[in-house]
Write a structure and sequence with these properties.
Layout lengths: L3 H11 L9 E9 L7 H6 L6 E5 L5 E12 L2 H9 L9 E5 L6 E13 L2 E10 L3 H13 L14 E7 L2 H16 L5 E12 L5 H11 L4 E6 L4 E7 L2 E6 L2 E12 L4 H13 L1 H18 L7 E2 L3 E4 L3 E11 L6 H8 L7 E2 L1 H11 L10 E5 L3 E6 L3 E5 L2 E10 L5 H20 L4
Antiparallel strand pairs: 1-6, 2-3, 2-9, 3-5, 4-5, 4-17, 5-6, 7-8, 8-16, 8-20, 9-10, 10-19, 11-12, 11-18, 12-15, 13-15, 14-15, 17-18, 19-20
Protein name: Isochorismate synthase MenF
GO molecular function, one term: isochorismate synthase activity
Pathway: Quinol/quinone metabolism; menaquinone biosynthesis; Quinol/quinone metabolism; 1,4-dihydroxy-2-naphthoate biosynthesis; 1,4-dihydroxy-2-naphthoate from chorismate: step 1/7
Length: about 425
């Protein structure tokens, strides 16, 4: 096996060969060694090419880094249709984001795709043209010639010059009262309401460095990063899987119900035990389980709901119930997106009524928050819910976090829950991480 630098040189040499003059796709894939200091995110951050996409599975066993786009797709149907054209390439992978409104997306076929499963890494160069694959070769050569080395991701050193919340504390109290009144009136059973913390810094934060800092300290999470260009990036560290598909086997989950975390193991265990037995949090979690099961009825086999468990993170703890099943014939990632996003854990129940309430009353547009990030191929796919996340636009950072509102929810408690969730990223700007 070769180093990454050697593999990129070999890929460049391979472009001197003959390529089809008809429309279509061709891939050049080579394995390489993961030496000391190999870091897909640092490699990605060293490039001045876009879009950039980084994703790491919450177990750490899989990660990918995608650079440049041969083709882009504004929604999942277009991405799924593209994959269907290349059924003879089951490992062909697309990646990117789906917005909170799943009809909107930013998915793409990467020019270069670094993939790692366990200790095995490979780099794929995609050539694609709707006219002639051979016509894409000069563009690919130019792209490779513009590659740079990895960049050291230094700790954040920033000065926050202004901060505000949407909604602010008083508005939050009024919003929660309005929601609980609507629940009491029977309009819906649950709604998930969110807050944005707007942080303005003296200079633009290094988005990749923020992602690296979060990856270091926020264990047990998916890590996702999408740089749209040099000024704008969306990133986060989410504990929640939306779905994982291997062939027709589907894994999803209900992650709902929250209590604060604690660095002390005994105190964390005590809080976790309270969470496991708290009626409000158990009820909130079961609402999500029931909604997922109802939405998958008719498109899958037997649904297996596993026993509840407490997921301990750096700042909070959650209740999680995993749900396993098998998709019926014809089930694909578009079906998974349509059935599962947004879940009751990020929108509410009934979903349409909760979404209408959110659209009327939240004082901001969610965009990518509470959507999903990941990748898909004909053979496998995996997407996480885009929670505990931030949108960076120049020197402004927008931090997103939400709380599930059910009968009996109290504004002060929910405000603190949102603070705890936002702290996973927010603390990286204001203190040296533990």
């Amino acid at each position: 096996m070769n180093s990454l630098a050697d593999v990129l040189k070999q890929i460049q040499l391979a472009l001197s060969g003959a390529f089809s003059t008809t429309p279509g796709l061709q891939q050049i894939t080579m394995a390489f060694s993961l030496g000391d200091g190999s870091d897909a995110l640092a490699w990605l951050a060293g490039q001045r090419l876009w879009p950039q996409f980084y994703w790491q599975q919450r177990s750490g066993d899989e990660e990918l880094a995608a650079l440049g786009a041969c083709a882009t797709f504004s929604d999942m149907p277009a991405a799924q249709a593209f994959l269907a054209q290349y059924a003879d390439a089951p490992e062909l992978a697309l990646c990117g984001l789906n917005a909170f409104d799943p009809a909107q997306g930013r998915l793409f076929l990467p020019r270069l795709l670094w993939q790692r499963r366990g200790a095995v890494a490979r780099m794929t160069l995609n050539l694609y043209s709707a006219v002639s694959v051979n016509d894409d070769v000069p563009r690919a050569r130019d792209f490779l010639a513009r590659l740079s080395c990895s960049r050291a991701l230094k700790p954040l050193q920033l000065a926050c010059i202004k901060e505000s919340q949407q909604p602010d504390r008083a508005q939050w109290g009024a919003l929660i009262a309005r929601a609980t009144d609507a629940i009491a009136a029977g309009e819906f059973d649950k709604v998930v309401l969110a807050r944005v913390d707007n942080l303005h810094f003296s200079r633009a934060p290094d988005a990749a460095a923020l992602m690296a800092a979060s990856r270091r300290v926020n264990g047990g999470c998916y890590h996702f990063f999408m740089a749209f260009d040099a000024e704008r990036a969306f990133l986060g560290s989410s504990p929640e899987r939306l779905w994982r598909r291997t062939g027709d086997r589907l894994r999803t989950e209900a992650l709902a119900g929250t209590v604060a975390g604690d660095p002390d193991d005994a105190q964390a265990a005590q809080l976790g035990d309270w969470l496991m037995h708290d009626d409000k949090n158990q009820r909130e979690n079961m609402l999500v389980v029931e909604d997922i099961c109802q939405r998958l009825q008719g498109v899958c086999g037997v649904l297996e709901v596993l026993a509840p468990q407490v997921v301990r993170l750096r700042k909070v703890q959650h209740l999680r119930r995993c749900i396993w099943t098998t998709l019926n014939a014809g089930g694909d990632d578009l079906l998974c997106l349509e059935r599962l996003q947004p879940t009751a854990a990020v929108a509410g129940l009934p979903r349409d009524a909760a979404r209408q309430f959110i659209a009327r009353h939240e004082p901001f547009t969610r965009e990518w928050y509470a959507g999903s990030a990941g990748w898909l191929s004909a053979r496998r796919s995996e997407f996480c819910v885009t929670l505990r996340c931030a949108l960076i636009e120049g020197a402004r950072v927008r931090l997103y976090a939400g709380a599930g509102i059910v009968a009996g929810s109290q504004a002060e408690h929910e405000w603190q829950e949102v603070n705890n969730k936002a702290a996973g990223l927010r603390s990286l700007f204001f203190a040296t991480p533990d």
